[in-house]
Amino acid sequence: MDDPELEAIRRKRMAELMAQQGGGPGGSGGMPQNPEQAAAQAEQRKAQEQQRQDMLRSIMTADARERRESTNLRSRKRACDAARRATDAE
C-alpha cells in the first residue's frame, strides 16, 4: 500500500499547493509574525487592489464598468473573473 513513488508525488503536489497559497516554511501565508508585518501586508493588498481598479478604469468603457458593477452585486466571483480576463487581455 505504501508506494514510495506515490508518496513522492503527494509530497510534491502538497509543496506546490503550499507555494500557491504562500504557506510553507518562510512563506507569507497564514498569520503574520507581528503587527508590523500584518500592517505591511494589508497596505500591500490595498495598493494592489487600487492598481487593479486603476487598470480596469483605463481599459473599460463606462458601459462595461456599469455592467461589471451590476454583475458584482449579483455574483462577486463572476465579476472577479471578468476583471481578470479584462486585465489579462491588456
Question: Could you walk me through the main structural features you see in this protein, from its secondary elements to its overall organization?
Answer:
The protein is mainly α and 90 residues long. The chain has a domain at 61-90. It is 78% helix and 0% strand. It has 4 helices and no strands. It has helices at residues 4-21, 35-59, 62-74, 76-89. Helix 3 packs antiparallel against helix 4. The protein is extended, with a radius of gyration of 19 Å.
Give the gist of this structure.
The protein has 90 residues and is an all-alpha fold. It has helices at 4-21, 35-59, 62-74, 76-89. It contains 4 helices and no strands.
Helix-strand layout with pairing:
Layout: H1 4-21, H2 35-59, H3 62-74, H4 76-89
Helix pairs in contact: 3-4
Descriptive labels:
90 residues
Largest pleated sheet: none
Identify low-pLDDT runs.
none
Considering DSSP H and I runs of 4 or more, what fraction of the residues is helical?
A: over 70%
Mean pLDDT value: 78
Strands, count: 0
User: What is the count of DSSP helices, taking H or I runs of 4+ residues?
Assistant: 4
Q: Provide the gyration radius in Å.
A: 19 Å
Q: Which structural class fits the helix and strand makeup?
A: mainly alpha
Shape: extended
Order of helices and strands: HHHH
How much beta, percentage-wise?
under 5%
The N- to C-terminal Cα distance equals 49 Å
